[in-house]
Amino acid sequence: MAVQAALIIVASVFLLPWWAGMLVFSVPEFRLWGADIFPDWPNFFAAMLCIAFIAAMTFQRRWLVGLLCLMAAILTTSRTVFLAVAIFLAWHVMLRQQRYTAIRLAAVITASIGAAALLTILLAGTFDSEFAARLLLISDRLAILWSSIDLMLESPLTGVGGVLLDYRVGHLGAASFHNSYLEVVVRTGLIGLAIYMTLILLPLFLLRWSDTLIPLALFILAGSMFQNLLRHPHIAIVFSVVIAWAGLRRRMRHVPETPANSCQIDSA
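The line above is the sequence of O-antigen ligase-related domain-containing protein; the predicted C-alpha cells follow.
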C-alpha cells in the first residue's frame, strides 16, 4: 500500500484539479479524478489506505509509511479518513494512555491537513463553502437508513431477498446501501445478520491478539456503518489477512520454551 500511496501522491500532482480548490472534495466530477487509474475509487480504496495507515502506526511501528498512506487517503477525498484518524487517536488516549503521543500525532496530522488545505486554497484563490457542507452532510445516509428500516420491517427475521436499489431503499444517485449491516439485514433478515457477524467476529476471538489490533477492528466495524466495507472482497480479504498475520506475529514473539530448546541451550 505504501507504493500505491506514493503513486497517488505523484498522480495527484498531474491529474488533481488543484485550480478547483476545496471543490475537489465536494464536486463528484472532481472527486473522481483518480477513478480511471486506481481501482475502487474513492471510498473503498481510501478504506484500504486507512487500514494500512492504522496497521503501520500500531503494530508495525512504521510511522513514515503510516503518514504516507494517510496523505494518500486524504487525496482520495473520502470522509473515511476522519473516522480512521479519530479511532486511532482515541485508542492512544483511552487504551494506551499515551496522551502526549496522541497530542503530538494529532498536531502533526492537523498541520499536514491544514497545510494541504491552505495550499489548495492559495492555488485556487478561493474557499468554497460546499466543502464544509459536505463534511456535515448526513441527509443522504439518513434517507437510506429510514427507507431500509421500513423495508426490513416487512420481513425482519428472514429478509426480503435480492432487493433492487431503487427508490425503496433511498436510492439517491448511488447504487449502494452505504451500510454493510443494513444491506445484510434487509436481504437476509436478523438471522442472516447473526450468522454474518459470527463469521466476521469469530477470528478475533480465536486469536491471541493484542490491543494494537483494536483500532483496526474498530475502523472496519464502524466504517461498515457508512460503507459496504465488509461486503467488498478486497476489504474482507485484507482485514482477514492483517488480523491473522498480526496474531501470528504475537504468538511467535511469545513462543514458550520447549524441552528440546532447553536441551540445545544447555549443550551450548
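Note on the example: Residues 255-268 have pLDDT under 50 and may be disordered. Residues 180-206 form the longest helix (27 residues).
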